Amino acid sequence: MDKRFLLALVLTAVVVIATPWLFGTRSTQDASKTARDTIAISDSIRRPASDTAISPAATNAEKPAVTGPVDSSRSVAQTVPETTTVSLKLADYTFNSIGAVPIAVELKSYKALDGSKRNVRLESKSGPLLSFRLFLPGDTVDLTRAAFSPTRSGSNVLSYSANVHGADVVIRYTFAPDSYLVRVSGEVHHPNANAGFIAVEMPSSLKSAEADSLDDQQHLAYAVKPQREGARGIPFSKLDPGERRLEPGPITWVAAKNKYFIIGVLTPDNGTPFAEVAITGGPRTGRRATQASAIAVDPIRNGTFAFELYTGPQEWRRLLALGRGFENSNPYGGFLQGVVQPFATIVMRILLWMRATLNLSYGWVLVIFGVAVRLLLWPLNQKAMRTSMKMSRLQPELAEIQKRYKSDPQRMQSEIMRVYREHGMSPFSSLSGCLPMLLPMPILFALFFVFQNTIEFRGVPFLWLADISLKDPFFIVPVIMGLSMFVLSIIGMRNSPPNPQAKMMAYVLPVMMTVFFLNLASGLNLYYAVQNLTAIPQQWLIANERAKSGATPAPARA
Fold it and tell me: What residue ranges in 112-220 does DSSP mark as E strands?
């Protein structure tokens, strides 16, 4: 194994080992009420002057009929909460009349993998999925303590109404069939409503329905999409208890998510964006961060507000269809997001296309994808390996020139360039011979992130593997991956000059990579093992070609 191939192996190890260190995420009470109560409209929020005045039409507008108004002085303890369930094809939505809030969403197409044999149920560990507060000039109205009266309008509209602190408030949910998207709209009739804001509080945590609940907790995060910037993720683990971050507007959407499911509030197309999002770290009862708080502030215009609520799986195509960049609610790559995210998107598109075209499980799709990548790179690798052989043959002559003209650097440089020209090479040939060996690395790099949140891989069996998104319980695939890497290294050293460093790396690197991959997704191990196995025949052919052509190095000129 020559120096170029050794360099490729070393860089491979650096990329794979550094990936989780640079970009990996670390992950039962609500964020403290005191922290939530400190949320206020920041000085960065400014309504245009044309909107601050209350128009006569808005002030004198006819108020909607309020069914069973509730006096704000009435205690919630004196009111019996009324639970309403809206059943649709894809999900069942459960609401509570106290606060007019959604408290749970049951997804009919996804089974929990925690052994309960029930459907996945999206709900917070404490509190509702969403809650509302009303910011009026000089007053903050906590709608979570108000008792609303529900009204059903057909099968697709659920309305809640109440009178709270002199304000008539209506919150309306409009459901779309065959979709996880719900349109939320509201009306606030109050003299100062047009100068106010509605605050939407996201869930502080999400219950896990996964076989590996600890891994699910590590992926708890909020994601925010500023209107003029790319989406960015804020893992719970990156927030210290009580730490507060303010994301200034305009904001297109904000989401709370675990590994595979997401709850997002999105501004309607051509609608008013959120004014800001305030995020606060929650208390920790252990090493893992499982609690946080996020509040999105939406301006009230003409006494109304509106946004869209998505509660469902992180299916890439479904999120892409929603537009507004919601498919990027899993920002990949940390500070290298601008490079990693597009590449991960390309890989995801290819895998989804192969799944739909070939009608095979994702396990076989990964096998075929790994073979296809190697076959596509075969010509480049062939050229690189032959260049490497030429460089090996030139080394004795170059070493002789360096020794002979060590006292005359200019003459030495001239002679070295002459040797390169005579053999049709250049000083950059060594680098160009190494680069093709690293071309599969971006794909492996992208797959590392894709496997973190891609619900399409969730629960997919393959051969003895029950779920390719989880580690191999028997560690068979990581061992195969390590053995294939070892065989590839040994074949690469055939018919090459003895190299103690290369021999040591041939033993150490496969062991190191196997240990690192043991607890990673078995599908990722499968892809890398297939890559190695597919590369063995080419390495064998090159070793035989090396034996035929190059045993004799190029003679040094007198």
Answer: 119-122, 131-136, 139-142, 149-153, 157-164, 167-175, 181-189, 197-201
